[in-house]
Amino acid sequence: METLLQYINIAGTFAFAISGSLTAMKKKLDPFGILILAFVTSVGGGTIRDMLIEKRTAFWLVELEYLYVIVAGTIFAILFRKKLSYLRKTIMLFDSAGLGLFTIAGVEIALQHGFSSVSCIILGTITGSFGGVIRDIFANEVPVIFRKEIYATVTVLGGICYLLLRKMGFDFILVQLIPVLMIIVLRILAVYYKWSLPLIIVNENEDPERL
Amino acid sequence: METLLQYINIAGTFAFAISGSLTAMKKKLDPFGILILAFVTSVGGGTIRDMLIEKRTAFWLVELEYLYVIVAGTIFAILFRKKLSYLRKTIMLFDSAGLGLFTIAGVEIALQHGFSSVSCIILGTITGSFGGVIRDIFANEVPVIFRKEIYATVTVLGGICYLLLRKMGFDFILVQLIPVLMIIVLRILAVYYKWSLPLIIVNENEDPERL
Amino acid sequence: METLLQYINIAGTFAFAISGSLTAMKKKLDPFGILILAFVTSVGGGTIRDMLIEKRTAFWLVELEYLYVIVAGTIFAILFRKKLSYLRKTIMLFDSAGLGLFTIAGVEIALQHGFSSVSCIILGTITGSFGGVIRDIFANEVPVIFRKEIYATVTVLGGICYLLLRKMGFDFILVQLIPVLMIIVLRILAVYYKWSLPLIIVNENEDPERL
């Protein structure tokens, strides 16, 4: 089981690296810029988590396998950049897997450091989604997570689910698998059915009666 | 007195949450995006301070009351978004209170970690004003603090005032209140009278004699 | 020798401060904004390095001389902003010296914390080049390092060279000087001959046969 989760984790890193690379190529960055954007997209969320918690060195400085996976993901994205537009669904699947796994990994690490439930869910959300935030800031865009696809909302729900299952004493494998699958499925449904949170409109000139 | 300061602190967090929410709504972010922007505006400065200092966990991971105040501030801003344009002065008052309190809190925490005066003032300025910097970067704008209202200048003056009063052995309540009030008053005067530092113009094509 | 390296280090900080100030003046920031941009450009890379490593306080909170050099560099840039367009080559020389020295300093600090070669090179690259990344993000632009002048590539090569020389047991002075000079020379040659990594073009509409 440990190995299955590890495979998903590597697939998530790989997928985030591809997502970062594609953004970088759209922005016409040079190959090194592509690698850096792949890197920050993959490790950004976990790095911020580690910087927020006292006594944590950024995980990728110690677990080097992530770096190799990122390099592989970047090369893959460069080589198959033509085909990747047809693979959008596959990428989104991997990206959702990464989102789910990273979120739950973040919640678990926060729990091990003794934080409260609320802090754990926030650290999980940061782990899962802030890599994409840094990617978008580096690419000089308003982070997509703030704008659509209820990206962060899904991670919060997954984090809450994880804490509930863990408290109820479920088997550890189920405790991990169910919220990860839940995040993946919800995210895919959200993209497929274009779910989004309602927009809140502010317009000082608009007619108050019409809202 | 402790409670008075705590009230101001909570009011500051509340005000920064409103300020972040209003920016988010102007950028048409979804409700979760609004909450995140409120969050980073409120806790961003203190978080960077805590990450710069060895052996500090980000304060809001431990003191959860800040999170609840931020959620309340965000809901308040969403509900009263129509009215808040009339409340601009009130918001600015709260925002200035937050700026003053956060700055002094940052200076005090830095002092407790044994840093030099210069480092304390810098950490105070970061605590007071970098929440707004992150807010503006997330909203894809050049941070307003760099451009007008002598925002950061006021915090530096407040920090210096705090260190001087502390060294002169004033009563602890006065040592805290005077610089906070000074920052609030200076900031309000700066906005009211449109004070700003002189712009330094660089234009390689312009006539050197005319400058 | 220690003093020579220290002079280069100070020159690097000075040059990065000038580089940040010039960017800030182009963006019409106010004097305090100029100082902050000079500050983050100079210390940004080393600060991120220190935040990534457990048990490191940001270096400039302890070694105050960097702050004074930054203030001096900012004042210099403001006073001589007219002349600095003629001094572009001089600035680039200092900037490259800073890049080289900061990179090697970053690699060395990482080694002392017991990280692997790959992590050391990454931390070196971050130390040398992420000050410029933060400068560009604050100025609301896509970081220049991602786009041209093989900035980051040169630091990676310098870092590898440093590790190789160190392993081969060369004299400590040579181990430090050779990679620093190598980064400086390569960077200057890259700017002079307009070296850059090949762009990878992604255009979903373009004819696949033509690529």
TrEMBL record, chains A, B, C:
Its primary localisation, in coarse terms, equals: membrane
> Which segments does the entry list as coiled coil?
none
Transmembrane region positions? 6-25, 32-52, 58-80, 92-110, 150-166, 172-193
Q: Offer a single GO CC term for the protein.
A: plasma membrane
Record's subcellular location: Cell membrane
**What keywords tag this UniProt record?**
Cell membrane, Membrane, Transmembrane, Transmembrane helix
At the top level, the lineage of the source is Bacteria
Q: Please report the record's description of how this protein sits within the membrane.
A: Multi-pass membrane protein
Glycine transporter domain location, by residue? 7-81, 93-166
* Family note: Belongs to the UPF0126 family.
Q: Which protein, by its recorded name, is this?
A: Trimeric intracellular cation channel family protein
Q: Which organism is it from?
A: Maribellus luteus
